[in-house]
Design goal:
Layout (H helix, E strand, L loop, with lengths): L1 H4 L7 E4 L20 E8 L10 H17 L5 E4 L3 E4 L2 E11 L2 E8 L24 H22 L2 H9 L7 E5 L6 E8 L5 E4 L5 E4 L3 E4 L1
Antiparallel strand pairs: 1-2, 2-6, 3-4, 4-5, 5-6, 7-8, 7-11, 8-9, 9-10
């Protein structure tokens, strides 16, 4: 964020071997042992760009593309709205967007060598899936993929990114629970994404509920 405010160029990446104050969404602690990927990149927004929040979809499809290239297409790699990458039901990676003036910083954490033991959700790592990859190698491939999808997002609009995301997400009809800040959780079935990238949830009474924010859990 400091580099963004100081004028760092779009496409800049920063990577840490280890973090002492790693965090995820809503300020949650992010365990940061050496061997995993902790990286951020910078996008300078333009007036004609799609909504800034949809950069989470750009980061998601780039991340899924890279992980699938290491694991193969039959290992259950799936995107979960708004910012997680799963293998089966276990979280492998997370994305965090933060904005400073005309810059969006996309932070990406990937469990390469280690994964935490969390009470609220299962987790995994590439190492636990039988794949050894160094953070320095992973970030090179990720930077290439992110740049390619960013060009499509900017040049073709959100549609191709959203379509790719939907094709790599858990199936329509997946049972989800969405936690809302200061409110009761909402249960429903995944119905896909709206044109602007919001989550569509089919409620038990048949109504379609559109959500632009929330913590999503597989049920």
């Amino acid at each position: 964020m400091a580099a963004a405010l100081a004028g760092a160029l779009e496409g800049s990446w920063l990577r840490a071997d280890r973090q002492t104050a790693g965090r995820g969404r809503q300020g949650r602690a992010w365990e940061s042992p050496t061997g995993n990927l902790y990286a951020s990149t910078l996008v300078r927004l333009r007036p004609t760009d799609p909504p800034a929040a949809t950069l989470s979809l750009v980061a998601g499809v780039a991340l899924e593309e890279v992980v699938t290239s290491y694991l193969g297409a039959d290992r259950g790699v799936a995107l979960k709205w708004p910012n997680d990458l799963l293998i089966g039901r276990a979280k492998l990676a997370g994305i965090l967007l933060e904005r400073a003036e005309d810059a969006v910083v996309a932070g990406i954490g990937v469990n390469l060598a280690h994964h935490p033991d969390l009470p609220e959700r299962p987790t995994t790592s590439l190492a636990a899936q039988g794949v050894a990859v160094a953070p320095t190698d992973f970030i090179e491939t990720l930077a290439e993929s992110f740049a390619r999808w960013l060009r499509r997002w900017r040049g073709e609009g959100l549609a191709p990114v959203r379509d790719r995301w939907a094709a790599r997400a858990h199936p329509v009809g997946t049972a989800l629970r969405v936690g809302l800040p200061g409110g009761e959780p909402v249960d429903g079935l995944f119905e896909g994404l709206t044109g602007d990238g919001a989550l569509m949830l089919r409620l038990a009474d048949g109504r379609l509920h559109v959500m632009h924010a929330g913590d999503v859990f597989l049920v």
